[in-house]
Write a structure and sequence with these properties.
The protein is of the alpha+beta class. It has 12 helices and 18 strands. Strands 10, 11, 12, 13, 14, 15, 16, 17 and 18 form a 9-stranded antiparallel beta sheet that branches. A 5-stranded parallel beta sheet has the order 3-2-1-4-5, with helices on both faces. Helix 1 packs across helix 10 and helix 3 packs antiparallel against helix 4.
Length: 378
Amino acid sequence: MSSIIPGAMLGLLGGGQLGRMFTMAAQSIGYRVTVLDPAEECPAGSIAERHLCADYHDPTALHELSTTCAGVTTEFENVPADALQFLEQHCVVSPPARSVSIAQNRMLEKQFLAANGFSVAPFLAIKNNDDLSAEIETIFFPGILKVSQFGYDGKGQVRINASRELPNAFASLQQQPCVLEQLLPLGCEISVIVARGFDGEISLFPIAENQHVHGILDMSIVPARIPAEIAQQARKMAAEVAIKLDYCGVLCIEFFVLTDGRLLINEIAPRPHNSGHYTLDACITSQFEQQVRILCRLPQGSTALLTPVVMVNLLGDLWQSGEPAWSKVLRNPNAKLHLYGKCGARPGRKMGHFTVLADTVEQALQQAEAIKVSLKNR
């Protein structure tokens, strides 16, 4: 199939901040974008050429996308797979419906990874109350119970210390199908953004070291401060996951690095990822431009890191006393501020991020932490 040339209309399912950054990347190359999102006000819809305000299953909206867009992509993993299947019959779609259907369901994802020989934490499927009546091995405790779908940023998760706590935990999650995972001694968390084209070409972005607060990504440090052999293993595993999943597009593989040096896959996100936002400022090609390039069957851009960088999330908590003092970010000549254009700041809601670039990762981290403190202490 030939490339989709600039000037064409691209479709996007989802209008959040990831979609906003995709739209900006596409427009900078000369493409136009139609966003399908049920929210009347959304970050991507406010800057795209068109915003179809409709449900992702809406047949009229899907028909509009399929007939006016040369290619369609996604900005979040919970896009209905059947909507993607419909679009695949009419235009280029990235990522494929089958890949998304696996990666958007924790149970299917864990089973897929284990069946293909990838290392994961011991897990157990909890589909209904009957699964609670069986004797569950003590190896799974302490553990964490996670809903199979629609859980993110620490939502839909309950920590469990003993089997007697399972029934209440399962009830608190509305008895949705869940996965029980064993908690293991954690050294750090890292992620790899991997891009795979329709031709099988694979590119890998520099590894990010991620720090979380209350289950939400707080900071990504690049390059990750991990041994070279672990970095090499993570890159190899990420590429193999993309191949086994027959994935075409940009995805993120999140890893646990255990205190004993073992590397386990935690989750797959079938889209660009929060931990890859640093690529906007610190790489030759951002994860969003790479998403555009793959969708349009263009050659992939270089993922080389230009400088060490630290990315810090800006949550709605900072707005509780009014608009934050952005001068505290912007007066640092090494800092880049990105705000997402969201209406209504709420605690825990991702409203933006900033990056700090420096000659060394230690300098970038020191400056980023100083800016964080200054924003909170106004």
